Amino acid sequence: MSESPTAGVDIARLSTEQDDFDARLDHLLAWEGVSDATIQQRVDEILAEVRARGDAALVEYSNRFDRLSVTSMAELTLGEPRLREAYEGLPAQQREALAAAAERIRVYHEHQKPASWQYTEADGTVLGQQVTPLDRAGIYVPGGKAAYPSSVLMNAIPAHVAGVREIVMVVPTPDGVLNELVLAAAYLAGVDHVFTLGGAQAVAALAYGTETVPRVDKIVGPGNIYVATAKRAVFGQVGIDMIAGPSEILVVSDGGTDPDWLAMDLFSQAEHDEDAQAILVSWDEAHLAAVEAAIVRLLPTLERAEIVRESLSRRGMLIRCRDRAEAATLINRIAPEHLELSVANPEGWLGDVRHAGAIFMGRYTAEALGDYCAGPNHVLPTSGTARFSSPLGVYDFQKRSSIIHCSAEGAGELGKIASTLARGESLTAHARSAEYRLKP
């Protein structure tokens, strides 16, 4: 099977039976999240400037990069009255939808809350774990080709459920354009501070703090390559959630789902940006052809048709595999951000899926439902990192401290073990510290 350019939609058609399948798949999956030396150098300069000059640097960079004309941070700060005004000014249907989504997200994340625990050994020694929230979290909300009020909810609500005391949000406003839905979501989610900052300078402000922007303990939320590079650079100074790549979807279909549905599911991720990736896997050749025909027919009806066309041409794939088992192998090899199991018995597949950010089960579960209102978080590992990473959740806004409370008897027993091991490492102060507590 060869690549099939059709009606200007040059989406790759692959078959696992091709001799060069592995190489072509690897090529199309490849995404380098690390910026080049030029971007890295520019980001380093921005971080250093913000760290050294604080608010003055933020004002300067905002004017330059977001085409603003502000003179102070006061003009880049939004208070609670402005957020409330945005929320109350929404059309009733939008306000109700936002509130319904927020409640579903909250309820889901309430189930994630881990509890502190302890147990007591026979000699009275107590061991355990204490779970505590971060003091302050920073949320980066993109403000480029699309506005993402859903991202505000997905980042802020788990932080609230975790018990974070203070939430700081940054969102770029190119040309000074404010998105009312984003501001309304910040109000609904209980964000404490909102600054209209973007790019590496916003990450620097959250990581180091300025005269106006509070320093945070962790930065979460996706952004462009400058944001990702800055997050990588400040990691260690603060925590970060992940280095997010472009949006991805992998749909596995057994041929029983309406091709129009699947075409639109692929579009739903491709419309994010030109680097997004949409993949369909099936062992039904006629079904793949029907979905491709639906793509060609429906693409012109999209408002973001050119972005979708470019995304599908760059990184899209229609893959014919041999059977269900080979489809499962492809799932785990790709380790997708979003996995749609558009099959008759999705529950039967779960035991075979080891690597996926979120799994959408059955023909009626469109990935878009997870983006907005199903409840689980839509901040997910990308670029194959689902092999070792998980969705954003309550646990990302909490820390775990070990608890060790030795009884006199316990200190005596543990001290003997510790002394022996410490002397084996030639760390005699360690050994003597433990030995002082041994019973005579």
Explain this structure.
The protein has helices at about 20-30, 35-55, 55-65, 80-90, 90-110, 150-160, 180-190, 200-210, 225-235, 260-270, 285-300, 305-315, 325-335, 365-370, 410-425, 430-435, and strands at about 10-15, 75-80, 115-120, 125-135, 135-140, 165-170, 195, 220, 240, 250-255, 275-280, 315-320, 340, 360, 400-405. With about 450 residues, it is an alpha/beta fold. A six-stranded parallel sheet has the order 1-12-11-10-13-14, with helices on both faces. Strands 2-7-6-5-8-9 form a six-stranded mixed sheet, with helices on both faces. Strand 10 (about 250-255), helix 10 (about 260-270) and strand 11 form a beta-alpha-beta unit. Helix 3 (about 55-65) runs antiparallel to helix 8 (about 200-210) and helix 4 crosses helix 7. It is globular. The N and C termini lie far apart (about 80 Å).
Low-confidence stretches: 1-6
Strand order, largest beta sheet: 1-12-11-10-13-14
Class of secondary structure makeup: alpha/beta
Radius of gyration (Å): 25 Å
Provide the β-strand percentage band: 15-25%
List the helices and strands and how they pair.
Elements lengths: L11 E4 L5 H9 L7 H17 L1 H11 L11 E2 L1 H9 L3 H19 L6 E4 L5 E8 L2 E5 L8 H14 L3 E5 L9 H9 L4 E3 L3 H10 L9 E3 L4 H10 L4 E2 L7 E6 L5 H12 L6 E6 L2 H14 L6 H11 L1 E4 L3 H11 L3 E5 L15 E4 L5 H6 L25 E8 L2 H17 L3 H8 L5
Parallel strand pairs: 1-12, 5-6, 5-8, 6-7, 8-9, 10-11, 10-13, 11-12, 13-14
Antiparallel strand pairs: 2-7, 3-4, 4-15
